[in-house]
């Protein structure tokens, strides 16, 4: 079963990179999301199971050296590859296809903030106007690169490398061949994504969001609540993807009689919200979040309208990862009506998923809480990203990294914490 889990993780990465859309715009979506969900359910089955016939001894010096060489070599390759594609994009701009307002939006927010101007105001580009849609922790970390006059893309690169190093240190004592493969698997998956889609790493900075979510997934198995509480707060204030899962996590902790832990997560998130979002920004303009959400909806409509002219499956909405291809083919009405229906469907499915996961835990409270939190995190994010209205390829780095956290904890001993009926 553990070998099956590893095979599923490999398959998930391949279906999001070199094998993307190889079975068509419909079957590819079903395969990718079926694999992603299977990772969660197989992991729940094998997590905490005893590992027979393999001693759990301290790694030898030779084994440790091999581990560090693998980690260092892959890290060096990632940095070298990213520096190369950044340099190439600057040196030969005409050969790079596409463009993006992601980094320009972040730069504008940072420079306005450092100039003591309200960051959340309309940004005027040459051909259109944009209202900022990013939450504070999606752009505040880039203040460091602005001060140091460095490329903004170093922040997501170093952040994800740091979490990968944290994961490596936590898993490098795994027994058997798992100790040589699992600790470096996040780097391998990241390499695959970079090599398959250079443009995403030229124009986007998804590594920072992936670092937040990867760290949060790892922290679900921590015996201390503070790492998870901080991770949840970082996720909440960087992208709203997690907003449905947080009440579920609190409910699970309450059902498991871990009310103190639930209150810790809630209070830490509240403090982060007040200090980093409400006080500096929302206090003076309470419409910031709603304005950003409305602009995001407007931008999504434009993307959907542009997709109508493309029929070869290469568009962002028909890339074999999200169910937007099914919506375009099956939902009736104008493109705006289809998008509205699909957005409602997305919210409904996220809500149904959360309720179903909560009811399942209520009926099976013998499952260790830490284990179920990670399982529900993966299931929920799979559903959220599967039905997101703009399934850009680079976004799926987040659920791929969460899968790495499951892989890393499959050999961890079962927690002794149990709930009572």
Which labels suit this protein?
421 residues; globular; mainly alpha; 18 helices; disordered C terminus
Q: How would you describe this protein?
A:
The chain is mainly α and 421 residues long. The protein contains 18 helices and two strands. It has helices spanning 2-15, 27-46, 61-91, 102-114, 143-148, 154-171, 178-181, 185-196, 198-203, 206-219, 226-236, 245-255, 259-282, 288-307, 324-330, 335-363, 369-386, 397-409; strands at residues 123-124, 129-130. A two-stranded antiparallel sheet has the order 1-2. Strand 1 (123-124) and strand 2 form a beta hairpin. Helix 2 (27-46) packs parallel to helix 18, helix 8 (185-196) runs antiparallel to helix 18 (397-409) and helix 12 (245-255) runs antiparallel to helix 13 (259-282). The chain starts with a helix and ends in a 12-residue tail after the last helix.
Please give the structural blueprint.
Elements: H1 2-15, H2 27-46, H3 61-91, H4 102-114, E1 123-124, E2 129-130, H5 143-148, H6 154-171, H7 178-181, H8 185-196, H9 198-203, H10 206-219, H11 226-236, H12 245-255, H13 259-282, H14 288-307, H15 324-330, H16 335-363, H17 369-386, H18 397-409
Antiparallel strand pairs: 1-2
Helix pairs in contact: 1-2, 1-18, 2-17, 2-18, 3-8, 6-10, 8-18, 10-11, 10-18, 11-13, 12-13, 12-16, 12-17, 16-17, 17-18
Q: How large is the count of helical segments? A: 18
How many strands in all? 2
Question: Can you list the strand order of the major beta sheet?
Answer: 1-2
Spell the H/E element sequence. HHHHEEHHHHHHHHHHHHHH
Silhouette: globular
Whole-number mean pLDDT: 91
Radius of gyration (CA) equals 21 Å
Beta-sheet strand percentage?
under 5%
How far apart the termini lie comes to: 30 Å
The major sheet is characterized as: 2 strands, antiparallel
Approximately how much helix is present in the residues? Answer: 55-70%
User: Low-confidence parts lasting 5 or more residues at pLDDT below 50?
Assistant: 414-421
Structural class: mainly alpha
């Amino acid at each position: 079963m553990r070998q099956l889990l590893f095979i599923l993780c490999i398959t998930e990465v391949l279906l999001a990179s070199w094998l993307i859309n190889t079975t068509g715009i419909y079957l590819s979506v079903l395969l990718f999301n079926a694999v992603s969900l299977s990772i969660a359910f197989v992991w729940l089955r094998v997590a905490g199971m005893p590992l027979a016939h393999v001693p759990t001894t301290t790694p030898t010096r030779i084994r440790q050296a091999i581990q560090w060489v693998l980690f260092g070599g892959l890290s060096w390759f990632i940095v070298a590859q990213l520096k190369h594609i950044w340099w190439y994009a600057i040196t030969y701009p005409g050969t790079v296809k596409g463009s993006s307002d992601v980094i320009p939006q972040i730069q504008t927010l940072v420079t306005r903030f450092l100039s003591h101007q309200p960051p959340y105001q309309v940004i005027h580009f040459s051909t259109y106007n944009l209202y900022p849609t990013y939450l504070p922790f999606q752009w505040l970390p880039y203040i460091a690169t602005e001060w140091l006059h460095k490329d903004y893309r170093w922040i997501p690169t170093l952040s994800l490398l740091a979490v990968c190093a944290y994961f490596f240190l936590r898993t490098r004592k795994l027994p058997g061949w798992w100790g040589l493969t699992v600790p470096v698997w996040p780097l391998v998956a990241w390499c695959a994504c970079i090599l398959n889609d250079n443009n995403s790493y030229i124009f986007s900075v998804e590594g920072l969001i992936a670092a937040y979510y990867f760290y949060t997934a790892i922290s679900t198995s921590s015996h201390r609540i503070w790492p998870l509480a901080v991770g949840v707060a970082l996720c909440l204030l960087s992208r709203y993807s997690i907003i449905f899962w947080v009440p579920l996590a609190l409910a699970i902790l309450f059902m498991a009689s871990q009310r103190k832990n639930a209150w810790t997560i809630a209070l830490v998130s509240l403090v982060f919200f007040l200090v980093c979002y409400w006080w500096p920004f929302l206090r003076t303009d309470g419409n910031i979040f709603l304005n950003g959400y409305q602009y995001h909806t407007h931008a999504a409509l434009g993307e959907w309208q542009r997709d109508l002219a493309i029929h070869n499956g290469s568009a962002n909405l028909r890339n074999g990862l999200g169910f937007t291809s099914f919506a375009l083919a099956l939902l009736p009405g104008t493109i705006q009506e289809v998008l509205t229906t699909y957005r409602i469907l997305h919210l409904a499915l996220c809500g149904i998923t959360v309720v179903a996961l909560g009811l399942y835990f209520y009926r099976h409270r013998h499952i260790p809480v830490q284990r179920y939190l990670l399982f529900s995190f993966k299931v929920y994010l799979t559903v959220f990203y599967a039905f997101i209205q703009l399934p850009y390829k680079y976004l799926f780095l987040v659920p791929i990294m969460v899968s790495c956290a499951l892989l890393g904890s499959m050999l961890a001993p079962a927690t002794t914490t149990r709930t009572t009926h």
